[in-house]
Design brief:
Elements: E1 9-12, H1 22-34, H2 42-48, H3 53-62, H4 71-85, H5 95-104, E2 109-113, H6 117-124, H7 128-131, E3 138-140, H8 155-164, H9 178-184, E4 187-191, H10 194-202, E5 206-209, H11 213-218, E6 229-230
Parallel strand pairs: 1-2, 1-4, 2-3, 4-5, 5-6
Helix pairs in contact: 1-4, 2-3
Length: about 250
Amino acid sequence: MHPRNKIEYVLFDMDGLLIDSEKIYTIATNEVLAEYGKVMTWDIKAGCMGKPEIPAAQYLLSHFPDLPIDIDTFLKERNRIQDTLWPTVPLLPGAKRLVQHLKKHGIPIAVATSSRRRNFEMKSANLQDVFGLFEGKVICGDDKQYNMRGKPEPDIFLTAAQVCLGREVGDPQSVPNEEQLLEREKGLIFEDALPGMQAARRSGMSVIWVPDSNLLNLGYGPVTERADQILKSLEDFRPEEWGLPPFDDE
């Protein structure tokens, strides 16, 4: 095992990493597409994951040029179905234990999600034993006040580190100085989507990629960024490898 940076703060993506929301996205999307005899395959879904809502929908619909509905109609119907399902979304294995462990040991944590804030609130409402621990330290994809570019650009992670945790990592769209680079190296990001992994890598922080096995089977393709570590599940994470306190409940 190669030496790892000693971590002082941790950032989490949400969809597909902390919660099993990707299943709901798939159900809702395919319910809409089924009316037109279409289906979203895994290779199409992989290209949507990690993107903000509109770019993801544009990518999806580009694969169905003969679909007789526009993007606004598609999103309205898909979101209607999703809204009925969000209260049922479960945590993914290892998420609760990891977040509670970091909180217990005073490690600064925040969420950086491409989800719209209204969706974040719906998804997290029944999971406050985990999301309440972030104490509102959450950056969402539609937080327009920060003028963020979407993943795979690193803006959302750098914004979360700066705004939520007070880390002096520099402006996302400016060249960082040496002190800002060193501050970035103290951060660890957990991601599941390929654009999110790229964004995390470009931020200058360390990144642990926890992809769905279907996504991993597709490989990196033309992507040049590489994760520092790839895990099958958050359950496989070992904090002591990163200079963090080891789990004390074993």
